Amino acid sequence: MSLSASRLRLSRLALSNPHHLPSVYIAGIPSSTRAITSTAQQCSLPPESPAYIPVPVPPLSDETKPTRVRGSLPVPRKVFPQPSDSRKLDPSYLAETYPRSEKPQPPATLIEDHPQHWKRIMADSRRKNLRAGLQGLWRRKLKRDERDASLGADKHKAHMAAGLAAERTDEFLTLSTILQETLNTEVLPDPDRFQKAEVSRKRTLELEEERRDARLHSLMELYVNANHFIVDEKDLEVEVDHLFSENYWRAPSKNSAWQEWGSQSGVNDMVGQTVRESAPTLDNYTAGYTRNMKRQKKVAEELTGGKME
After folding, report:
1. CA angle in degrees (0–180, nearest 5) for 106-108-114
2. In this structure, are strands 29-30 and 25-26 parallel, antiparallel, or unpaired?
3. What are the angstrom distances between the C-alpha of 136 and each of 95, 132, 143?
4. In this model, does residue 149 exceed pLDDT 90?
5. Boundaries of every domain in the chain
6. For the chain, where are the E strands, in sequence order?
7. Which stretches of sequence are listed as region Disordered (predicted)?
8. I need a surface site. Which of 85, 241, 242, 246 has the fewest CB within 10 A?
Protein backbone atom coordinates (compact mmCIF):
# COMPACT_ATOMS: atom_id res chain seq x y z
CA MET A 1 0.00 0.00 0.00
CA SER A 2 1.37 3.39 -0.97
CA LEU A 3 1.86 6.32 1.43
CA SER A 4 -0.93 8.42 -0.13
CA ALA A 5 -3.43 5.57 0.16
CA SER A 6 -2.57 5.09 3.84
CA ARG A 7 -3.13 8.77 4.60
CA LEU A 8 -6.48 8.74 2.78
CA ARG A 9 -7.64 5.72 4.78
CA LEU A 10 -6.61 7.31 8.09
CA SER A 11 -8.48 10.50 7.30
CA ARG A 12 -11.66 8.56 6.50
CA LEU A 13 -11.39 6.61 9.77
CA ALA A 14 -10.93 9.82 11.72
CA LEU A 15 -14.02 11.38 10.19
CA SER A 16 -16.16 8.29 10.75
CA ASN A 17 -15.12 7.54 14.37
CA PRO A 18 -12.75 10.06 15.88
CA HIS A 19 -12.85 8.46 19.39
CA HIS A 20 -11.50 5.12 18.24
CA LEU A 21 -8.68 6.14 16.02
CA PRO A 22 -6.19 3.27 15.81
CA SER A 23 -2.51 3.75 16.13
CA VAL A 24 -0.62 2.83 13.00
CA TYR A 25 2.99 2.85 12.07
CA ILE A 26 4.01 4.74 8.98
CA ALA A 27 7.53 4.16 7.89
CA GLY A 28 8.39 2.94 11.40
CA ILE A 29 7.01 6.12 13.16
CA PRO A 30 4.04 5.68 15.56
CA SER A 31 1.14 8.15 15.33
CA SER A 32 -1.71 8.76 17.78
CA THR A 33 -4.44 11.29 18.56
CA ARG A 34 -3.70 14.45 20.57
CA ALA A 35 -6.28 16.31 22.64
CA ILE A 36 -6.70 19.98 21.70
CA THR A 37 -8.54 22.34 24.08
CA SER A 38 -9.05 26.10 24.31
CA THR A 39 -10.08 26.16 28.00
CA ALA A 40 -7.71 28.17 30.25
CA GLN A 41 -6.00 26.34 33.08
CA GLN A 42 -7.47 26.93 36.53
CA CYS A 43 -5.38 28.71 39.17
CA SER A 44 -3.74 26.29 41.57
CA LEU A 45 -3.89 28.78 44.49
CA PRO A 46 -6.97 28.39 46.72
CA PRO A 47 -8.82 31.48 48.01
CA GLU A 48 -7.42 30.99 51.53
CA SER A 49 -3.85 31.30 50.26
CA PRO A 50 -2.05 34.59 51.15
CA ALA A 51 -0.84 34.82 47.55
CA TYR A 52 -4.37 34.52 46.10
CA ILE A 53 -4.60 38.34 45.84
CA PRO A 54 -1.38 39.98 44.66
CA VAL A 55 -0.39 42.68 47.13
CA PRO A 56 2.56 45.00 46.47
CA VAL A 57 5.52 44.37 48.75
CA PRO A 58 7.93 47.05 50.00
CA PRO A 59 11.22 47.31 48.15
CA LEU A 60 14.16 45.50 49.64
CA SER A 61 17.04 47.36 51.22
CA ASP A 62 19.85 48.32 48.87
CA GLU A 63 22.41 48.21 51.65
CA THR A 64 25.51 46.30 50.64
CA LYS A 65 27.55 44.61 53.32
CA PRO A 66 31.31 44.40 52.87
CA THR A 67 32.74 41.01 52.10
CA ARG A 68 34.08 39.24 55.15
CA VAL A 69 37.83 38.91 54.88
CA ARG A 70 39.34 36.00 56.77
CA GLY A 71 42.32 36.68 58.94
CA SER A 72 43.62 39.81 60.66
CA LEU A 73 43.83 42.99 58.63
CA PRO A 74 44.80 46.46 59.82
CA VAL A 75 41.95 48.91 60.18
CA PRO A 76 42.27 51.47 57.36
CA ARG A 77 42.67 54.90 58.85
CA LYS A 78 41.08 58.04 57.46
CA VAL A 79 43.61 60.05 55.52
CA PHE A 80 41.36 63.15 55.64
CA PRO A 81 39.39 62.86 58.91
CA GLN A 82 38.76 66.63 59.18
CA PRO A 83 37.35 69.01 56.57
CA SER A 84 40.43 71.20 56.96
CA ASP A 85 42.76 68.37 55.90
CA SER A 86 42.85 69.69 52.35
CA ARG A 87 46.07 71.40 53.41
CA LYS A 88 47.76 68.05 52.80
CA LEU A 89 47.66 68.95 49.10
CA ASP A 90 49.72 72.10 49.63
CA PRO A 91 53.43 72.01 48.77
CA SER A 92 54.20 73.24 52.29
CA TYR A 93 52.72 70.06 53.79
CA LEU A 94 54.77 67.91 51.43
CA ALA A 95 57.88 69.89 52.36
CA GLU A 96 57.18 69.32 56.07
CA THR A 97 56.37 65.63 55.60
CA TYR A 98 59.34 64.78 53.37
CA PRO A 99 61.84 67.63 53.77
CA ARG A 100 64.88 67.95 51.54
CA SER A 101 68.36 68.02 52.93
CA GLU A 102 69.71 71.53 53.46
CA LYS A 103 73.33 70.43 53.49
CA PRO A 104 75.39 71.22 50.38
CA GLN A 105 75.97 68.13 48.29
CA PRO A 106 79.60 67.22 47.56
CA PRO A 107 80.45 67.39 43.84
CA ALA A 108 81.53 63.76 43.86
CA THR A 109 77.98 62.63 44.73
CA LEU A 110 76.50 64.34 41.66
CA ILE A 111 77.94 61.74 39.30
CA GLU A 112 75.33 59.34 37.91
CA ASP A 113 77.29 56.28 39.00
CA HIS A 114 77.49 57.44 42.62
CA PRO A 115 75.14 55.71 45.12
CA GLN A 116 74.02 59.04 46.63
CA HIS A 117 72.83 60.19 43.22
CA TRP A 118 70.61 57.11 42.94
CA LYS A 119 69.26 57.69 46.46
CA ARG A 120 68.31 61.27 45.55
CA ILE A 121 66.46 59.99 42.48
CA MET A 122 64.54 57.48 44.64
CA ALA A 123 63.71 60.19 47.20
CA ASP A 124 62.32 62.46 44.46
CA SER A 125 60.26 59.53 43.18
CA ARG A 126 58.81 58.94 46.65
CA ARG A 127 57.91 62.62 47.00
CA LYS A 128 56.20 62.52 43.61
CA ASN A 129 54.30 59.36 44.51
CA LEU A 130 53.24 60.86 47.85
CA ARG A 131 51.90 63.96 46.10
CA ALA A 132 50.05 61.88 43.49
CA GLY A 133 48.65 59.52 46.14
CA LEU A 134 47.29 62.36 48.29
CA GLN A 135 45.68 64.01 45.28
CA GLY A 136 44.09 60.72 44.19
CA LEU A 137 42.78 60.01 47.70
CA TRP A 138 41.36 63.52 47.91
CA ARG A 139 39.52 63.13 44.62
CA ARG A 140 38.19 59.76 45.80
CA LYS A 141 37.01 61.33 49.06
CA LEU A 142 35.18 64.12 47.23
CA LYS A 143 33.52 61.62 44.90
CA ARG A 144 32.47 59.40 47.80
CA ASP A 145 31.08 62.33 49.79
CA GLU A 146 29.14 63.52 46.76
CA ARG A 147 27.74 60.04 46.17
CA ASP A 148 26.74 59.61 49.82
CA ALA A 149 25.08 63.03 49.86
CA SER A 150 23.18 62.22 46.67
CA LEU A 151 22.01 58.85 48.01
CA GLY A 152 20.99 60.43 51.31
CA ALA A 153 19.04 63.17 49.56
CA ASP A 154 17.29 60.64 47.32
CA LYS A 155 16.38 58.45 50.29
CA HIS A 156 15.10 61.44 52.25
CA LYS A 157 13.04 62.57 49.29
CA ALA A 158 11.61 59.07 48.82
CA HIS A 159 10.79 58.77 52.53
CA MET A 160 9.08 62.15 52.57
CA ALA A 161 7.08 61.27 49.47
CA ALA A 162 6.05 57.93 50.98
CA GLY A 163 5.10 59.57 54.27
CA LEU A 164 3.00 62.29 52.64
CA ALA A 165 1.44 60.01 50.03
CA ALA A 166 -2.24 59.17 50.19
CA GLU A 167 -3.36 55.86 51.63
CA ARG A 168 -3.20 53.10 49.08
CA THR A 169 -6.29 51.15 48.11
CA ASP A 170 -4.90 47.80 49.22
CA GLU A 171 -3.99 49.24 52.62
CA PHE A 172 -7.44 50.80 52.98
CA LEU A 173 -9.12 47.48 52.15
CA THR A 174 -6.90 45.31 54.37
CA LEU A 175 -6.70 47.51 57.48
CA SER A 176 -9.01 46.77 60.39
CA THR A 177 -11.86 49.13 61.16
CA ILE A 178 -10.99 51.92 63.63
CA LEU A 179 -13.72 54.09 65.09
CA GLN A 180 -13.47 57.82 64.60
CA GLU A 181 -13.74 58.35 68.36
CA THR A 182 -10.65 56.19 68.82
CA LEU A 183 -8.67 58.23 66.32
CA ASN A 184 -9.46 61.41 68.24
CA THR A 185 -6.73 61.44 70.90
CA GLU A 186 -7.20 65.03 72.04
CA VAL A 187 -7.33 65.43 75.83
CA LEU A 188 -10.22 67.74 76.68
CA PRO A 189 -10.15 69.81 79.90
CA ASP A 190 -12.19 68.48 82.80
CA PRO A 191 -15.29 70.66 83.33
CA ASP A 192 -15.18 69.98 87.10
CA ARG A 193 -11.49 70.71 87.48
CA PHE A 194 -11.99 73.84 89.61
CA GLN A 195 -14.31 72.08 92.06
CA LYS A 196 -11.88 69.16 92.34
CA ALA A 197 -9.00 71.56 92.89
CA GLU A 198 -10.92 73.28 95.70
CA VAL A 199 -11.68 69.94 97.38
CA SER A 200 -8.03 68.93 97.05
CA ARG A 201 -6.93 72.26 98.54
CA LYS A 202 -9.17 71.81 101.58
CA ARG A 203 -7.96 68.25 102.05
CA THR A 204 -4.36 69.42 101.85
CA LEU A 205 -4.99 72.07 104.50
CA GLU A 206 -6.58 69.47 106.78
CA LEU A 207 -3.62 67.13 106.41
CA GLU A 208 -1.21 69.97 107.09
CA GLU A 209 -3.19 70.91 110.21
CA GLU A 210 -3.07 67.30 111.42
CA ARG A 211 0.68 67.14 110.88
CA ARG A 212 1.13 70.44 112.75
CA ASP A 213 -0.91 69.19 115.71
CA ALA A 214 1.08 65.94 115.76
CA ARG A 215 4.34 67.90 115.85
CA LEU A 216 3.09 70.11 118.69
CA HIS A 217 1.95 67.05 120.62
CA SER A 218 5.34 65.39 120.19
CA LEU A 219 7.12 68.55 121.31
CA MET A 220 4.93 68.78 124.39
CA GLU A 221 5.62 65.15 125.31
CA LEU A 222 9.31 65.82 124.85
CA TYR A 223 9.04 68.85 127.13
CA VAL A 224 7.16 66.91 129.81
CA ASN A 225 9.62 64.01 129.75
CA ALA A 226 12.63 66.31 129.79
CA ASN A 227 12.85 66.19 133.60
CA HIS A 228 13.98 62.55 133.32
CA PHE A 229 16.80 63.27 130.87
CA ILE A 230 20.42 62.83 131.93
CA VAL A 231 22.12 66.15 131.20
CA ASP A 232 25.32 66.03 133.27
CA GLU A 233 27.97 63.52 134.35
CA LYS A 234 26.74 63.43 137.94
CA ASP A 235 23.30 62.12 136.99
CA LEU A 236 24.94 59.65 134.60
CA GLU A 237 27.17 58.27 137.36
CA VAL A 238 24.20 57.91 139.70
CA GLU A 239 22.16 56.02 137.07
CA VAL A 240 25.09 53.75 136.14
CA ASP A 241 25.80 52.95 139.79
CA HIS A 242 22.14 52.14 140.30
CA LEU A 243 21.80 49.85 137.28
CA PHE A 244 25.13 48.09 137.63
CA SER A 245 25.22 47.74 141.39
CA GLU A 246 25.97 44.33 142.92
CA ASN A 247 22.69 44.17 144.81
CA TYR A 248 20.49 45.18 141.87
CA TRP A 249 19.03 41.67 141.27
CA ARG A 250 19.43 40.32 144.80
CA ALA A 251 15.90 41.19 145.83
CA PRO A 252 13.80 37.99 146.21
CA SER A 253 10.99 39.32 144.02
CA LYS A 254 13.23 40.66 141.20
CA ASN A 255 15.41 38.19 139.41
CA SER A 256 15.20 39.44 135.82
CA ALA A 257 14.50 42.51 133.69
CA TRP A 258 10.95 41.37 133.05
CA GLN A 259 10.29 41.25 136.77
CA GLU A 260 11.78 44.72 137.10
CA TRP A 261 9.91 46.48 134.27
CA GLY A 262 7.29 43.91 133.31
CA SER A 263 6.96 41.66 130.28
CA GLN A 264 6.84 42.97 126.74
CA SER A 265 3.46 44.11 125.48
CA GLY A 266 1.92 41.88 122.82
CA VAL A 267 -1.06 42.38 120.55
CA ASN A 268 -3.44 40.82 123.06
CA ASP A 269 -2.12 43.07 125.83
CA MET A 270 -2.59 46.22 123.74
CA VAL A 271 -6.12 45.18 122.72
CA GLY A 272 -6.99 44.41 126.32
CA GLN A 273 -5.62 47.77 127.45
CA THR A 274 -7.78 49.52 124.86
CA VAL A 275 -10.86 47.59 125.96
CA ARG A 276 -10.19 48.33 129.62
CA GLU A 277 -9.78 52.04 128.94
CA SER A 278 -13.00 52.30 126.92
CA ALA A 279 -15.83 54.45 128.30
CA PRO A 280 -18.33 51.71 129.40
CA THR A 281 -15.65 49.60 131.07
CA LEU A 282 -14.14 52.66 132.73
CA ASP A 283 -17.50 53.64 134.17
CA ASN A 284 -18.48 50.15 135.39
CA TYR A 285 -15.26 48.77 136.87
CA THR A 286 -13.28 51.85 137.97
CA ALA A 287 -13.56 53.68 141.21
CA GLY A 288 -14.94 57.18 141.16
CA TYR A 289 -11.70 58.83 142.28
CA THR A 290 -9.62 57.10 139.61
CA ARG A 291 -12.21 57.80 136.94
CA ASN A 292 -12.34 61.49 137.82
CA MET A 293 -8.55 61.77 137.81
CA LYS A 294 -8.30 60.32 134.31
CA ARG A 295 -11.06 62.58 133.04
CA GLN A 296 -9.46 65.68 134.56
CA LYS A 297 -6.12 64.72 133.03
CA LYS A 298 -7.66 64.42 129.55
CA VAL A 299 -9.48 67.74 129.93
CA ALA A 300 -6.29 69.46 131.07
CA GLU A 301 -4.35 68.02 128.13
CA GLU A 302 -7.01 69.30 125.70
CA LEU A 303 -7.02 72.76 127.28
CA THR A 304 -3.25 73.14 127.49
CA GLY A 305 -2.55 71.40 124.18
CA GLY A 306 0.15 69.18 125.67
CA LYS A 307 0.85 65.96 127.49
CA MET A 308 0.60 65.82 131.26
CA GLU A 309 2.02 63.25 133.63
Report:
1. 115
2. antiparallel
3. 18, 6, 11
4. yes
5. 1-33, 86-180, 211-246+277-309
6. 25-26, 29-30
7. 47-91
8. 246
